[in-house]
Amino acid sequence: MANAFVHVELNTTDVGKAKAFYGKLFDWQLEDMPMGPGEVYTLIKPKAGTGGGMMKHPVPGAPSMWLAYVEVEDIKAATAKAKSLGADIKRDVTEIPGMGSFTILADPTGATVAMWQPAKK
Predict the structure, then answer these.
(1) How many CB atoms lie within 10 A of CB 78?
(2) CA atoms within 13 A on the CB side of 116
(3) I need a surface site. Which of 16, 49, 69, 106 has the fewest CB within 10 A?
(4) Which runs of consecutive H residues, i.e. helices, occur in the chain?
(5) Strands 100-106 and 39-45, bridge-based pairing
(6) What's the pTM value of the predicted model, to 2 decimals?
């Protein structure tokens, strides 16, 4: 399927509590990986299906939320297309070195989604 959902991410106010809850509820394998000084990203590795991650919400005071990522072939072109269709770009094209690039947007109805382009190998 073109433009499939490929990653889901929990931006949470309490990573420890979220890890305990979801790890026990769904029996997910959770693996912490350092992101930088004092920052950790927890990979979610289900037995099947789309994986994801958990991290401390980057917006102070914002509520916890799930964010779905849709894979695109060209992140810059997809971001420009989203803008032309009325999207509100919350985070413009951002590279994660060695992994890929993403954009976070709100659609014209206010729903938030992210787009992801894996790094070329």
Answers:
(1) 20
(2) 18
(3) 49
(4) 15-26, 75-84
(5) unpaired
(6) 0.90
pLDDT in tens, 20-49: 999 999 999 999 999 888 889 999 999 999
| pLDDT for res 119 | 95
**The dihedral formed by the CA atoms of 33, 5, 79 and 40, expressed in degrees to the nearest 10:** -10
Give, in degrees to the nearest 5, the angle at Cα 64 between 61 and 69.
Answer: 120
Rg (CA), the chain: 15
| Residue range 87-93: mean pLDDT, rounded | 96
Helix (H) or strand (E) holding 90: strand 88-96
**Contact yes or no for 63/20 (Cβ under 8 A):** no
- Of 12, 7, 2, which Cα lies nearest the Cα of 113? 7
Of all helices (H) and strands (E), which one includes residue 34? strand 29-36
What's residue 1's pLDDT?
Answer: 58
The distance from CA 119 to its chain's CA centroid, rounded to whole angstroms, is 15
